[in-house]
Amino acid sequence: MFAIYNSIVYIIVWLLLTPWQWLQIIFRYSTFENWLQFRGISSFPAKQARHRVVCHAVSVGEIAALEPLVKGLTESGRDIEIVVTVGNKDGRASAERLRKRYTEILQVGFLPWDRYGAMVAWLQRVQPDLVVVMETELWPSLFMACKNLGISLYIANGRIYPADMGRYIFARRFFGQVLGCAAWIGVQDEHERERFIRIGAAPAVVHIVGNMKYDVPLPFGAITDKRLLQLENAGMLIVAGSTHSPEEQWIVESFQQLRKTYPSIRLVLAPRHVTRSDSIATMAEKEGMCVIRWSMGKIPSLEWDVLVLDEMGWLPAVYKHAAIAIIGGSFMNHGGHNILEPAAQGCAVVIGPHMQHFQTIAEDFNQANAILWIAHHEDLDAALMRMIGDEAFLCQLQDNARKFIQSRQGVADQYVKAIKDRLLGVSVDLSLLSDTAERLIIPMVHE
Questions:
Q1: Residue 154 in 3-state DSSP?
Q2: pTM (two decimals)
Q3: Distance separating alpha carbons of residues 398 and 260, to the nearest angstrom
Q4: Which residues lie below 8 Å from residue 443, measured CB to CB, with a gap of 6+?
């Protein structure tokens, strides 16, 4: 089956991806350097440290989860250098910002298209001692190449989207072969462990460790930017983060109703894809809102209603200045986005019905009374009115969220230990699970 897969990928690369990439280069949406990286023929400096680790995280959310792992590895006192690979432009931009904070990150680039020959050649150039892939990045040629070259491969923060289970189970025999290349699979909870085993992973290599996103460091470095300082004087802020169409329309309509009672509140719209910023700003203006953009470089103290966050990378820092966060992708059926960043920053979080991509996290927060989970976007008016009108309720949500996150932190240390043990040739002692991991296991046993 692997030969069939590789042949299909080869056809897709040369008949679809290559022409598309060259069109992007011609119209300056991409570069020749990107093309070389996708083909797996980019160069790498000679290894300077004792150990080299490749970490692959496809996009912004996975890069956020990767940061505590990078932080732990670089603070371990070991001679380690890191190569970070990504799958798209947003991920690369986030990885470049991460590189500025950690000098041990040697290089950032795109993971090659998943052709076996190209992947083998690329790994031989990189010369890693260990490859770590984040969450659901199951690339068969990468996995096979690591196995055949004798490179240890780990899956960290492992998860399988429930909606994808049907496809994985259909090809269980193939993915069992692919997952058999992984030396160690660390997953977020018991549900994820069961999913990995169902699609073919050997139970002996799949271990419940926890979700590293609880350990994501709070934003730093850019927080002295004058726009963030100006937000401190903007009054009560509601931030709608990682939104998708038509959520912005629904949120603006709810915001208009809210302002009839609370005219001083303000709204920040942060679309998941900043290329939609123009249409969002136009929509809000048609609704009678005074709209400004983050890219203006300054935030006036008066005379604005809606701020469109039209630059990537600022949302976590903006959350710090918000009282309430609305999670995009949860009101239309996209599966939701990460609630941990706003909750950790002290926001009271409201989510819609569609949180299947973060189902376990949302359920855990809900059980801890740390979020407000509503059934439909038409309920958003009443939910926001309750949060703003009842200060005790708002503060309780904020406080519960902070305490719950603190109770789940420490997971990244277990992933760091597993990687260090492999690099040092020590077998991973799985009995030394953190208290966090034990809390994740015990409730599942009694369900």
A1: strand
A2: 0.82
A3: 25
A4: none
